[in-house]
Write a structure and sequence with these properties.
Layout: E1 2-4, E2 33-35, H1 41-45, H2 47-54, E3 64-68, H3 72-83, E4 87-91, E5 101-106, H4 111-120, E6 121-129, H5 142-145, E7 150-153, H6 159-168, H7 170-174, E8 177-182, H8 186-193, E9 199-203
Parallel strand pairs: 3-4, 3-5, 5-6, 6-7, 8-9
Antiparallel strand pairs: 1-2
Helix pairs in contact: 2-3, 2-6
Amino acid sequence: LVTVNPLMNDLSFIGIDHQGCFAEYISVPIQNVYKIKTNNYKLAAYIEPIAASLAPLKANLSGLIHVYGTNRIAKLTAKILQLAGLDVVLIEPKTLAPNSCATIIETMMDEDSIEEISRLLKPEGTLVLKSRYPNKIPVNLYSFVKKDITIKSCYYYDFQKTIDFALKYETFFEDLFGAEFSLEQYSQAFNENLNAEKKIFLRL
């Protein structure tokens, strides 16, 4: 059983910069293929979002950390960073007063979210950007400059370390796995995925 690191050496990404994996066969560089010592194929398929959620560890954060967002990756990021030993709280839009947060990890890179995050951050706070949203959005940088905000970016965590982390906490991740569908049921799977709390799987 193997899992594939979708991040290429040139920092392009399978599923964003290249065609994704809805195919019976896919060709990837050999260095991006990792053997994984488990028979749990769902865990193998789940390594990618775990790597994305662990990425903020590279920012060397400390103290109370807020993860901003309402989507599944926000909830996953909060849970995984808590599992990794950080002091993390998940926050939703419009729930805190201005200047409430010293550090915020964004998981929703859109105009409204970035504006709300700039409102929530304390002076001299830290914003961690982790979303891989490929399109341009308007941002009022002055709202960050006037507060002396530090902006850090974290693209992806080390893939082998992610695999080791996932295997160490394999039973934890089992609770995050949702329904499984055949590829012929892709329409039903995508519809269920829209509001699913757990990861949806497609099988060939």
